[in-house]
Amino acid sequence: MRARIFSKHPDLFPEKIYNMETFMWSFGILFSRLVRLPSMDENVALVPWADMLNHSSEVETFLDYDKSSLGIVFTTDRSYQPGEQVFISYGKKSNGELLLSYGFVPKEGSNPNDSVELALSLNKSDKCYKEKLEALRRYNLSESERFPLQVKGWPVEMMAYAYLVVSPPSMSQYFGEMAAAASNKNSSKTRISYPEIEEETLQFILDSCEPSISKYTKFIEGQGDDLISVNAKQANRRLLLKQLARDLCTSERRILYRTQYILRRRLRDMRGGELRALTLFNGLRKLFK
Ligand SMILES: C[S@@+](CC[C@H](N)C(=O)[O-])C[C@H]1O[C@@H](n2cnc3c(N)ncnc32)[C@H](O)[C@@H]1O
């Protein structure tokens, strides 16, 4: 654009105004302020008073053009007292998405839509590696996939993928069914379940959280003042960016910790159940000896 238009017409586009810095500023302003109006074919608009509203993940709000009053109407799910801050929802977005689009990270634990991706991979030394990979490829999946975790749980697709990773050769007849469920392309969309490998599957997901947790911890704890800043403005900006990165990592690690907590509890219940059944069985055996 600069070579094709701006530099050819310096009188219309003086470099002092049309430069990279001002472009980035305008881009940021536009994308952090524009709103989508459903009743105007989802067209986007700048709405001067509405762009003063900050985001909260706890409110459900609607902003739209109202044909009868020929104006923009803002509807909230609660009443407000004079002087109280009114919030809008920028959408059900994760903290990472909010940081990328709007430049902030919500307070820790305040965003129920926050999510983090967990990578699961086939084990290269698995006897059935080739068969499993073939099954995955049939559904456009590969030997390593990422799934979104939230504090409230994980997707059924991730459980299906994990079943496939841990399943023994004796379960090869189910590989296709597992891959289909992992890709969410199984027509019935039913939750698949294999009780015989449930425990191993949960343990596999639990172990897969570890490398991500250590990476986050290393990043959060290892952030010293290593960068030399040219001036105070630059130093402040770096500090702000570092703090945002730290906040994001802390919120994503929190979801991984929560996932591990749920998994550990389930495993403990399962193992406790198995132990009770074994004790009962041994007791009965002694009784009938
Ligand atoms: C549409 S504007 C909202 C009004 C803005 N606070 C202002 O004073 O002009 C969007 C920007 O507000 C800030 N913002 C909105 N919600 C926020 C929140 N919950 N926490 C921190 N900053 C927020 C972010 O900088 C975002 O890019």
Automatic annotation (TrEMBL):
<dbReference type="GO" id="GO:0016279">
    <property type="term" value="F:protein-lysine N-methyltransferase activity"/>
</dbReference>
<dbReference type="InterPro" id="IPR001214">
    <property type="entry name" value="SET_dom"/>
</dbReference>
<feature type="domain" description="SET">
    <location>
        <begin position="1"/>
        <end position="91"/>
    </location>
</feature>
<protein>
    <submittedName>
        <fullName>N-lysine methyltransferase setd6</fullName>
    </submittedName>
</protein>
<keyword id="KW-0808">Transferase</keyword>
<dbReference type="GO" id="GO:0032259">
    <property type="term" value="P:methylation"/>
</dbReference>
<keyword id="KW-0949">S-adenosyl-L-methionine</keyword>
<dbReference type="InterPro" id="IPR046341">
    <property type="entry name" value="SET_dom_sf"/>
</dbReference>
<dbReference type="InterPro" id="IPR015353">
    <property type="entry name" value="Rubisco_LSMT_subst-bd"/>
</dbReference>
<dbReference type="InterPro" id="IPR050600">
    <property type="entry name" value="SETD3_SETD6_MTase"/>
</dbReference>
<dbReference type="Pfam" id="PF09273">
    <property type="entry name" value="Rubis-subs-bind"/>
</dbReference>
<dbReference type="InterPro" id="IPR036464">
    <property type="entry name" value="Rubisco_LSMT_subst-bd_sf"/>
</dbReference>
<dbReference type="Pfam" id="PF00856">
    <property type="entry name" value="SET"/>
</dbReference>
<keyword id="KW-0489">Methyltransferase</keyword>
